[in-house]
């Protein structure tokens, strides 16, 4: 379709954070996705969530309106 891949996949890094947390007990990691357009992330596990920090570019903005 001509759409380039995401340079960094947040979903995959959430799973990786959980894996490495169980292996090492660490709650903070720095990660790098080594793809063609790669990127660096900072991950922090907080209870059952993973916070992801890094550079981002907004490509779409919208809103959802719920009606009764």
Structure description:
The protein is flat and about 45 Å long. It is 22% helix and 28% strand. It has a three-stranded antiparallel β-sheet. The chain has one helix spanning 10-24; strands at residues 28-33, 39-46, 49-53. The longest helix is centred in the N-terminal third of the chain and has 15 residues, at 10-24. It is an alpha+beta fold. It is built from one helix and three strands.
Describe the global form. flat
User: Which structural category do the helix and sheet elements fall into?
Assistant: alpha+beta
User: What do the pLDDT scores average to?
Assistant: 88
Number of strands: 3
What kind of sheet is the major sheet?
Answer: 3 strands, antiparallel
Q: Counting H and I runs of at least 4 residues, what is the number of helices?
A: 1
Strand order of the largest sheet: 1-2-3
Helix content: 10-25%
Strand residue content: 25-35%
SSE ordering? HEEE
Radius of gyration, taken over Cα atoms and rounded to an integer in Å: 15 Å
The poorly predicted ranges are: none
Q: Determine the N-to-C terminus distance.
A: 37 Å
């Amino acid at each position: 379709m001509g759409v380039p891949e995401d340079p960094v996949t947040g979903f995959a890094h959430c799973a990786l954070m959980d894996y490495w947390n169980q292996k090492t007990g660490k709650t903070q990691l720095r990660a790098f996705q080594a793809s063609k357009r790669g990127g660096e992330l900072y991950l922090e596990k907080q209870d059952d969530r993973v916070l992801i920090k890094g550079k981002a570019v907004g490509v779409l903005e919208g809103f959802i309106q719920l009606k009764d």
